[in-house]
Amino acid sequence: MTTILGINAFHGDAAACLVQDGRMLAAAEEERFRRVKHWAGFPARAIAWCLEDAGLRLADVDHVAMNQDPRAHWARKLAFTLRQRPDPGLVAERLRNRRARAGTAALLRDACPGQSLRAKVHAVEHHAAHMSSAFHVSPFEKACVASVDGFGDFASAAWGIGRGSQVDVDQRVFFPHSLGIFYQAITQFIGFPHYGDEYKVMGLAPYGEPAYLDEMRRIVMLQADGSFRLDLACFRHHREKIDYEWNGGMPSVGALFSDELAQRLRTPARRPGDALEQWHKDIARSAQAMYEEAFFHLLNALHAKHRLPYLALAGGCAMNSVANGKITRHTPFEDVYVQSAAGDAGGAVGAAYSVWHALGGRRGAPHDHAYWGPHFGDEEIARLLHERFADLESQHCVAALASDEAALARGTAEAIARGEVVGWFQGRMEWGPRALGNRSIVCDPRRADMKEVLNLKIKRRESFRPFAPSVLREAVADWFELDGDVPFMMQVYPIKAVKRELIPAVTHVDGTGRLQTVTASTNPRYHALISAFCDLTGVPMVLNTSFNENEPVVCAPGEALDCFLRTKMDRLVLGSHVIRREV
Questions:
Q1: Global confidence as pTM
Q2: Residue ranges of the chain with pLDDT lower than 50?
Q3: How many angstroms separate the CA atoms of 521 and 527, rounded?
Q4: Distance in angstroms (rounded) separating the CA atoms of residues 259 and 269
């Protein structure tokens, strides 16, 4: 047995995974244990959990794989420093980060007190890890592979080809040019300052027009080889010290845009809390359109070189599900695989598989599900409900154990059809940012007012942000204009025009939906729930949103119960236990 611990550390979405002989055993993000969104630093608790779940100790680990290599592209880093002479604070910060990474062995021992470490520690270049995380767990034996994000190891993008266990890089885009930085800077400019807020721009974009696209094309310039360059006058990251916080806590990033961007767009930056005006929506739409132009330009050049029908995609920009859903319409690629943790957390998986295949390991089964996290049995849930009986009684809640699987699915489907908001907590927690039917809140997609109901009862988020449908895989072609496997909610498809008015709660303003396809083989209980709802209503999907309230997705039953009790959720299904409010 060869056991590899994969780690994403010292960056947002710190995470860990365990791979044994090419087979995934466990994976989880640190934020789920720390209860701090996008937690950055060293994923000590995720590491400890992965080992405990697998019944292993630190001494059982043969290799530790980190998804960053400070030595990568060092000549380019040196040349940039000598040529550009950036703020000395920027250089000092990079050196401090490098010293932190050098202490990995000591941090591992701290994470597992009293345990010895015999493993060899490997540094895997950031985009090599991303590309491995996309290709090596995909169903493709041969495919084009692309990684696009902000920055990692002095590069912002890499693309090439995967064959069997080998991934070869054709080309990279290096610092300071980055599609991820462009999108993040526009996100900040529109008034969404938090790390990870880019999805808000993606959700806002359909409400606008691409009125600023000409200006965007002068900010992001496409190159003949498929790459891109930024007009650096609009940015600060290459010459000034930007405030970054990656060391233990919620990550934060200082302003990336310069005053020149406001002049180009002929409007001041929006401050958080200011009203969202139409021009903000137009800027969002224009930025999304520019990202798509650059993204498809890159992919078309990649396809032209290799002429392969398949694409595996990773990196933070691969979370742009709107663009992902258009790949088969705007490029010659016929099928796309985007793994469930496409961002930096997934680099832990890519680092582990990079090392496994460098050791000569064979490819394992493709990852067709994302259920690699903590799990809790009905006995443990029963003990929790007994301990919290007074809390339940104080809110007039009653708990009961479902008599069988069919009764659980049917009773929950009936509650959803009545308009109830249901917390659905099952099995192993999802790996990646999306709730995929094990840590979900589920509702009736037919209710036009369900978005307002959810925001009033639980979510308390911007009204323009859409909710997603979980749909039976066998029904996709009947309801969407495209047909395909989308198990990780990483693509947006157009909903058929005749179906849109039937499911208004999950239909975006532009007639699309960010779907998750559900199969009985990967999640039988969730599939049974949706099937029961379809039997009742004729609609083969439910509205699915993450089980949380302005916090990371719940991990343990106690967190799910706390969220249920402090919100106005109507019903909570914890494993086979059903908790409902009587008033």
A1: 0.94
A2: none
A3: 9
A4: 9
